[in-house]
Structure formats: structure tokens, C-alpha cells
Amino acid sequence: MMQVLVTGAAGFIGYHLAQRLLAEGLQVYGIDNLNDYYDVRLKKARLERLNAQPGFTFQYLDLSDRLSMAELFRRKSFDCVVNLAAQAGVRYSLTNPHAYVDSNLTGFVNLLEGCRQSQIQHLVYASSSSVYGVNPKVPFATQDNVDHPISLYAATKKANELMAYTYSHLYTLPTTGLRFFTVYGPWGRPDMAYFKFVQSISAGQPIEVYNYGNMQRDFTYIDDVVEGVVRVMQQPPQSAEGTAPYKLYNIGNHQPVALLRFIEVIEAALGKSAQKVLLPMQPGDVPITYADVDDLMRDVGFQPSTPIEVGIQRFVDWYRQYYG
Q1: What one-character-per-residue DSSP string does 96-135 give?
Q2: How many CB atoms lie within 10 A of CB 299?
Q3: Is 125 a catalytic residue?
Q4: Of these residues, 15, 29, 92, 153, which one is catalytic?
Q5: What dihedral angle (degrees, nearest 10) is formed by the CA atoms of 154, 281, 274, 188?
Q6: Parallel, antiparallel, or unpaired: how do β-strands 123-128 and 175-180 relate?
Q7: Per residue in 172-208, pLDDT tens?
Q8: Is-above-0.90 flag for pTM?
Q9: What whole-number distance in Å separates Cα of residue 65 and Cα of residue 307?
Q10: What is the pLDDT of residues 119-158, one digit of tens each?
Q11: Are 8 and 43 in contact (CB under 8 A)?
Q12: Cα–Cα distance between 81 and 99 in angstroms, integer?
């Protein structure tokens, strides 16, 4: 039976991916350091649901702990590794840079080394749409130049892609990087704008709207992201003559939505109006994200398509159920 290591298993995407893999009868070994970047109770609640299922094993582990990571790969054998553990968030990287270096750089090297030593058949890892920076060309394609990140978070994600390429080239380790575009949905991250909007509007509090609302985001529903990840997992890149077994894909909805329209959808789902506080653009932020998913469609026959009206309603339903 296929054994998959999912790092960041108590996180938003990690939790949903683990659920999907367990439902398909796979063995999932989850690791997470349960850091307090956002409410740890939410992470523990996700973990509780995973622990209740046969086929799931959890270990409390930090990717940056080199000895423990090496020991994990010595002790266990995995068919595939999906790295979703990272220090997330653009704004937090402005004030806590070392958290990103420890998790996204040191931690990623430890993971690559484990995969190399164990001759893992496929490493799939999370990158981010943030790598595109203020790319003037839309939609963003994986062939575009991404040498100008505008946050340390984005720089660490770009570094992950370069590090993975090096390991693919030197050790023929098959690696696939996934550039996620604004993932949202039930059990989501409380630091994300949509979560904060629902929280504040529900409580009758004002919401902060950056760049005076002149922003567009390629909002991608969690189930679509998981479907993309699962399909990519099944197709490790091959090394043709002179090329490394290395791939990059965008996973986005391919339909940017204006921020003010997004807020309207949330208002409709909640049945309440928002009090908006319009603010200038924040450092490290970008005005638009927009995914070109032609490669994904061509190679794995899938592209995200859940409309925000459907996805936001599902999130609001979950939010009300979870928070009462």
C-alpha cells in the first residue's frame, strides 16, 4: 500500500490533502510543528479529525530539526513526499524573517536530503504565486521570469524551486513544485483576508481593505487544489536526455476576482453588510494574481473551476458550524 509523507499535516492544505489520501485508502504519515503563527487550537482540531482515521500516523516534528528529519527518513520508507510545511504569509515575513529562513530554507534542505538518501520516487512541494512579484504580464505563466520577489516569503519559495531543481539535476530526484494561488475554503487559515472578513463582518466590526480595493486575486477553492496535488503526485517528472526530472505548475482558478466583488460575495453569504476601511497598499503585496494553467491541463487533465459564490458559501457554512 502506498505510503505518503505529508509535511504540515495540521495545516490548511495538508489537512485536506491527508483527508483525501486516507479516503482513497492510502497510508498517510503526517508531520507538523504546530507553530503558533495562527490559532493552534484550529490546527489541533484538524489533527484530531485525522487521528481518528485508520491509516493516519502523526509525529510532532520540525523540518528545521536536522537530526530528527534524518532519523525519520532512516526509520520510515515513503513512496511519495508532499511538502506543505512552511512559514506562510507575506506580511509576517516583514517582521519575522528568521522564521522563514528556518522553515522554508533550512527545513527544505533537510527534506531534500531525506528524499535523496531514501531515493524517494517523487517529491511534490508547495511554492506560491508570490514568486511572480509585480510581474507585468498576465496571466502568470511558469515560463515567466521570477527573479524579482518583493517579500522574503516569496524569495524563500523561489529558493525552494531552485534547490529542488539542483537535487533533480544532481541526484535525478523527481520533484514537482506547485505555485498555489490564494487558496481558500473550510478549515482555512485565520490570517487570510477572506477569513478575517467573515470574522469581522459576523461580529459587526469594520474590515481593512488594502489598495482602496483596487486588487484582484485568483481565488482557488481548496478541493480544486487537492485534486491538482493528487493528480500531480501520480505523475512524477521523467528525466529525458540532458534534462532533470523537474516540473513546475500553477494551481489557480484562472479567473481573477476584484477584491470588492469578493467582499460582495461574502456579504451575500453572511446576509450582512461590511463596513469598509479603505487603506493604501501594504509593503510586499501585489495588485493582481492570475494563473495560466495550460500546462496543468495539458499534463494532468485538470484545472480548478469552483466559482467563488460556491466556495465562499461553503466556507461560511463551515465557519458558522465551527465557531457557533
Answers
A1: -HHHHIIIIIIHHHHHHHHHHHHT-S-EEEEEEGGGGTT-
A2: 15
A3: no
A4: 153
A5: 10
A6: parallel
A7: 999 999 999 999 999 999 999 999 999 999 999 999 9
A8: yes
A9: 40
A10: 999 999 999 999 999 888 999 999 999 999 999 999 999 9
A11: no
A12: 22
